[in-house]
Amino acid sequence: MTREENEYYNNPNEYAMERYMYVLCFKCGKAYFGGESRCQQELDNSQYNPEELICGGCSDVVGAQVCGRHGVDFLEFKCRFCCSVAVYFCFGTTHFCTACHDDFQRLMSLPTKLLPKCPAGPKAIQLDGNECPLKIKHPPTGEEFPLGCGICRNINTF
């Protein structure tokens, strides 16, 4: 964007609209960040329920502890398909870790009954033992789950 030969030269807004996807919240009707635009095609091709498109302000974050210091600004989520911290939010509905995001087409088509139980490793691999890598109690794999404040969680690991 800083070189004249770049198609987005001095036009960061157009670049952002090309690169990122925004969807309308089913509850409030406001646009919110739904992931990268390369994920948009998969959303368009899927059999998704529009009622699942809920922005952060309207989402039911049952189980989330609102941080007294940071609010919900640094809220982290569990990957929907394994026991890892999510780093992607796609389709306006789904949190993924990097490994699961790279395998999203297979994972999104898996029936819930075929998903591993906790402890689940990246790419929905069943891990041995009973200890969750996240060291918390959470809903079954396949459900969205907020982990709490990422800043405070990381501070507590030191």
Description of the molecule:
The mean pLDDT is 83. 20% of the residues lie in helices and 19% in strands. It is built from five helices and eight strands, in the order αββαβββααβββα. The protein has one domain (12-155). One of its GO terms (molecular function) is ubiquitin protein ligase activity.
Topology:
Layout: H1 12-19, E1 20-24, E2 31-36, H2 40-45, E3 75-78, E4 88-90, E5 94-96, H3 98-102, H4 104-109, E6 120-121, E7 125-126, E8 145-149, H5 150-155
Antiparallel strand pairs: 1-2, 3-8, 4-5, 6-7
GO biological process, one term: regulation of synaptic assembly at neuromuscular junction
Protein name: RING-type domain-containing protein
Organism: Onchocerca ochengi (Filarial nematode worm)
Give a short overview.
The chain has 5 helices and 8 strands; from the N terminus they run αββαβββααβββα.
Features:
alpha+beta, 5 helices, two-stranded antiparallel sheet, 158 residues, 8 strands, two-stranded antiparallel ribbon, ubiquitin protein ligase activity
Overall pLDDT metric: 83
Radius of gyration: 17 Å
Q: Strand order across the biggest sheet? A: 1-2
Count of individual helical segments = 5
Terminal Cα span: 39 Å
The share of residues in extended strands comes to 15-25%
**Structural class of the helix and strand makeup?**
alpha+beta
Query: What is the H/E string?
Result: HEEHEEEHHEEEH
Helical percent range?
10-25%
Ranges where pLDDT stays below 50 over 5 or more residues in a row are none
| Main beta-sheet annotation | 2 strands, antiparallel
How many strands?
8
Apparent shape: globular
Number of structurally distinct domains: 1
